[in-house]
Design goal:
- The structure holds two protein chains of two kinds.
- Chain A is mainly β.
- Chain A has no helices and eleven strands.
- Chain A has strands spanning 3-7, 11-12, 18-25, 35-41, 48-54, 59-61, 69-74, 79-84, 93-100, 112-113, 117-121.
- In chain A, strands 2, 4, 5, 6, 9, 10 and 11 form a seven-stranded mixed beta sheet that branches.
- The radius of gyration of chain A is 14 Å and the shape is globular.
- In chain B, strands 1, 3, 4, 7, 8 and 9 form a six-stranded mixed beta sheet that branches. In chain B, strands 2-6-5 form a three-stranded antiparallel beta sheet, with no helix packed on it.
- The model of chain B has no long low-confidence stretch (mean pLDDT 95).
- Classes of the chains: A mainly beta, B mainly beta.
- Chain A binds chain B through residues 37, 45-50, 52, 60, 62-64, 96, 105-116, and chain B through 2, 33-34, 36, 38, 44-48, 51-52, 57, 89, 91, 93, 97-107.
């Protein structure tokens, strides 16, 4: 079955760089159509899509956060990594990775999600 | 401010029917892009509830249904049950260049009275 799991630091200081890893199983990111996204949710607030990487190594970023984000994949390890630079307390959130796999990007939906990892930004 | 607008809260008694609206614009729902819905139970990750406007993944009860018209979409829940108490989010694609590509609504908290 498909599973995803996020890992990374629970606490980062302002201005530091956050690195999160999504380790997945049950599918391969080398399969045509497969994609993994990062999505975050500040406490008590709504979901926000951050970045997506596809099987062909194409990458898409939220316009508002594009300058701070980098997404990459290691297909052999079944991992996707997100880095976010210059962390700020407003970036405190639960960070999720999620799979999507439709043929058209316009129709993308997230069918499997990790459990999420809470990242707190504080000095 | 979310690109897709949802009511902050809705409520209903057990057995009743409730609907949750999701209003977008000409750069997302109105452009013909599909709408998807997620259910987030307290303290858990979101779960796909409806995809492609009106399709239910395997295992989702047929009490849940989705529809789309113009620049809006709706999620309907019939035969409301206590276990339906959760946050619900709509999601679509947005083609404007001023924001993210895949967008969510602000979420709606469903309370079962």
């Amino acid at each position: 079955q498909v599973t995803l799991r996020e890992s990374g630091p629970a606490l980062v200081k302002p201005t530091q760089t956050l690195t999160l890893t999504c380790t997945f199983s049950g599918f391969s990111l080398s399969t045509s159509g497969m994609c993994v996204s990062w999505i975050r949710q500040p406490p008590g607030k709504a979901l926000e899509w951050l970045a997506l990487i596809d099987w062909d190594d194409d990458k898409y970023y939220s316009t508002s956060l594009k300058t701070r984000l980098t997404i990459s994949k290691d297909t052999s390890k079944n991992q996707v990594v997100l880095t976010m630079t210059n962390m700020d307390p407003v970036d405190t959130a639960t960070y999720y990775c999620a799979r999507s796999s439709t043929g058209s990007y316009y129709s993308h939906y997230f069918d499997y999600w990790g459990q999420g990892t809470l990242v707190t930004v504080s000095s | 401010q979310s690109v897709l607008t949802q009511p902050p809260s809705v409520s209903g008694a057990p057995g009743q029917r409730v609907t949750i609206s999701c209003t977008g614009s000409s750069s997302n729902i109105g452009a013909g892009y599909d709408v998807h819905w997620y259910q987030q139970l307290p303290g858990t990750a979101p779960k796909l509830l409806i995809y492609g406007n009106s399709n239910r993944p395997s295992g989702v009860p047929d009490r849940f249904s989705g529809s789309k018209s113009g620049t809006s979409a709706s999620l309907a829940i019939t035969g409301l049950q206590a276990e339906d108490e959760a946050d619900y989010y709509c999601q679509s694609y947005d083609s404007s260049l001023s924001g993210p590509l895949w967008v969510f609504g602000g979420g709606t908290k469903l309370t079962v009275l």
